[in-house]
Amino acid sequence: MPHREEHLRRPVNAGGRTGFLALCGIGHQSATLSEREPFHICRKDLGGAVTFFKGLPGVNEVVLVATCNRLEAYMVLDAGVDAFGVMKAFLFGYKGIDAQESRHLFYQHHGSTVARRLFRVVAGLDSLVFGEYQIASQVKEAYSAACSSKGAGKVLHKLFHLAFRAGKRVRSKTTIGGGQYSVAGVTLRLLKERLDRHDPVLLIGINESIQIVAEGLRAAGFERLIFANRTAVKAQKLASRCGGGEWSSLEDLPGLLARCRGLVSCTAAPGAVITAAHWERCLDAARPGLGQGRTGPELVPKLVVDMAVPRDVEVVGKLADIVRIVDLEDLKHLLDNQERDRLAELPAAQSLIEDVVTSFQVWMEHAFDPGVANLAKEYERIRQKCLEEARVHFGSEDQEALERFSRQIMQSFLKVPARTFLDQGRQDSKPQGLCRLKKDLAATSRTCNPINATATPGERGTEGNETLSAAPAVETCTPTCRRNEEEHHAR
Length: 491
Description:
CATH superfamily of the largest domain: Glutamyl-tRNA reductase, N-terminal domain
Number of domains: 3
Radius of gyration: 30 Å
CATH class of the largest domain: Alpha Beta
Largest sheet: 6 strands, parallel
Strand order of the largest sheet: 8-7-6-9-10-11
Number of strands: 11
Helix content: 40-55%
Order of helices and strands: EEHHEEHEHHHHEHEHEHEHEEHHHHHHH
Strand content: 5-15%
Shape: globular
C-alpha cells in the first residue's frame, strides 16, 4: 500500500548543524543481481566502509546495510546535500566505481519515509523471500558495525532501535516471518513433519542454512544429528556449535547414507556431491537388511532435501523410484503457497509499522526542542500515574492494549496540542505558551483518574486507589508570562 511522503526534509539538529534524514540504496526491487553485484560490500568490511562514508563532506551520521539483496545508506546529511551525490562519492572513493550511469537503479527516501522503509526491511516485508527472518539479524549486525565505527548518532540510534521494535512486533503479532519463511525454515518444517525425533539426520555442508536447520532440529528434540563435510575438522566445529553430534568427512558417505533417515545437503560444490555411485554403494552396504524384511525405500533416507545450486544430489535410473528428493523448485513451491497465506496478514503488519512510524515522527518533532522535550516528560509522568490508577481495574490480558492505547493518546497530545501551544507562544513569547500548557497539565493531573475522577484532593477511592491530586507542583509563571497571557485573553 503506497504511503504519502511526509516531512520530506524536516530539519534536525545534528551536532549543532541543521540537517535531514535520508536514505539512498540499491536493492532487488530496483536492480537485477548482475546490476547489484559491482556495488556489493562484504559484511566484514562494513566498519571500514562506515568510517570512510562518515568522513565525506556533509555527512553527520551514517549506517550502511549490506546484504545479498541490498546496499542501503541511512544518513543524516547537512541541509542541501544530495543523498545520491554522497552515495556516488562513497562508491567512487571506496570501491573505485562511477555510479552516475547507474543512477536509475538507486532509490532515495527522506524524513518519515526512511523510517517506514527501514521498519519494513527489518520486518521482512521487503525481502526477496517475503517475511524471511534472517534479515533482522543482518540489520543488527550492520547497526553494530556503524556503532563501533561511530557512524550512528542520536537520530540513527533512535531510528534503528525503533526498527528492531517494529520488526519484533510484526513477528510476534502476525505469522509473517514466524521462523519458517526461508528455504532453511521450510526444510526444517518438512523434516519435523515427516521424520521421527529418534531418526538419524545427516547434514552435509558448513554454512548458515545448515546451522539453522541443525539448531531447529535440536530445539525440536532431534538427538541423532550427523555432520559431514569434505574437511572433517569443520564438521566437528559445526557439531560443537549446534549442541553436539556425530561428525565425519565425506569419505564414508555411502555408510552415512545407509544409516540416516533424513538428509539435508547444501554446499557450494560445482557438481554433485552425492552421485549415483554413492547410492549404489549405499544400497550394497544396507542390502543385508533385505533378508530381514526391509524394502528398497527403507534402505535409503526417507527424506532428502537438496538446497544447493547447482544440485548436490544426483539420482538417475531406477534410483529415482527409491530415493525421494525435495529440491529448490519444490521448496519454492511450498514458499509460494505459504506466501499467499501470509499476504492476508500484510494489512495488520503495515498497521503495526505505522504505529512505530508515528512514534518516530513525534520524537523527531520534539527531540531537538528543549521546551517540547520537557512537555514530553510531563506527559509521560502523567501517563504513568494514570496507568497505575487504571491497571487494577483491567485483567492481565488487557494490560498490553492499555499500555498501547495510553501511548497513542500521549503521542497525539505531543503531535497536535503541544505544537499549537508552542506555535502560539513563539508568536508572542515562548514561555507564555509553555506556562499555559503547564497549567493545563497541572489541571489534568489533578483529575486524570478515570475511576475516581470526582474524588477530592487526598481522598482514596472505594478500591483503595489514591487520586492524582498529589502530583508535584509545576513551575509557576513569571510576571512576564502572566502579563502576556492576560494580553492574549484580552485580544
